[in-house]
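Section 4.2 – Deliverable D4.2 (structural model, holo form)

The reporting period included a commitment to supply a predicted holo structure for the target in complex with calcium ion. Inputs used:
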Amino acid sequence: MIFSVSGRAAAAVGVSVVMLLTGGSIAGAAPSPTAAAAPDISVANVRAHLAQLQSIAGANGGNRAHGSAGYQASLDYVKAKLDAAGFTTTVQQFTASGRTGYNLLADWPGGDADQVVMAGSHLDSVSRGPGINDNGSGSAAVLETALAVSRTGYHPTKHLRFAWWGAEELGIVGSGHYVDSLSAANRSKISGYLNFDMIGSPNPGYFVYDDDPAIEKTFKDYFTGLGIATEPETEGDGRSDHAPFKDAGVPVGGLFSGADYIKTAAQAAKWGGTSGKAFDACYHSSCDTASNIDNTALDHNSDALAHAVWELSK
Ligand code: TRP
Ligand code: CA
Ligand code: ZN
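Output (structure tokens):
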């Protein structure tokens, strides 16, 4: 063999070496939910989305905040990618602070409509800056995972829905509106909601939301396999878009690489980086740019995201 195949990719070798070499779809393979493993998400692709969000902010007054042209352009960018990949997209409007806000929902056709697995992130930034770690990082990783679903022709048992929320920074308004707008019957069909808000912090920690045990275990097992220690994220209750789902009784989970809290010496010993410094010193600041990202954390968290989406929907 002229190339080496390791880990999860090895399982696909029997399908077609040519497809692996070309990065092609394995959609033609016999559907076998138990055999389907998540692909390795390309951090270069995730970073390319971040570069686009950075340039969108640059062209629109330096931010992508609720009610701004930068938010609209961010939504247009994500939606165009999803439409081209075969998702059914829906833009949901709401009002926050006197301005129209938008959520973007993307449904992957197929799967059991009574068992919906959702993954989401807020797409708005604060008005102080471009919001690349908070929360371009989660938005780009959720987008790339959705595109990987399409590329690999993944057709899980459960129905997949991806979401990009508006106006999180104004008080979790967009996701709250979405949950409020669901009938009780439709709410009960959501078997889990996975949230990704800040997953590429420059001085990263690896925090797994301490919430639904099955979701938490799915993430923790993935990091254990990488030999990376995690800590439970509990402080986040109520601080991001999983809160309205949790309040409505939906099982929730997610990942977080840290915001304005200070990394301790013990955390630096297990994760590297700098103790005595914030996980993200540019949190909610103008310096939250494309250079305010740790590539390794972004890569691992993106791969963990895809792993959880695959595992929990199969
Ligand atoms: N967008 C969130 C916020 O501004 C970021 C955040 C801070 C967060 N702490 C968190 C997200 C804990 C999840 C968990 O508050
Ligand atoms: Ca990867
Ligand atoms: Zn924020």
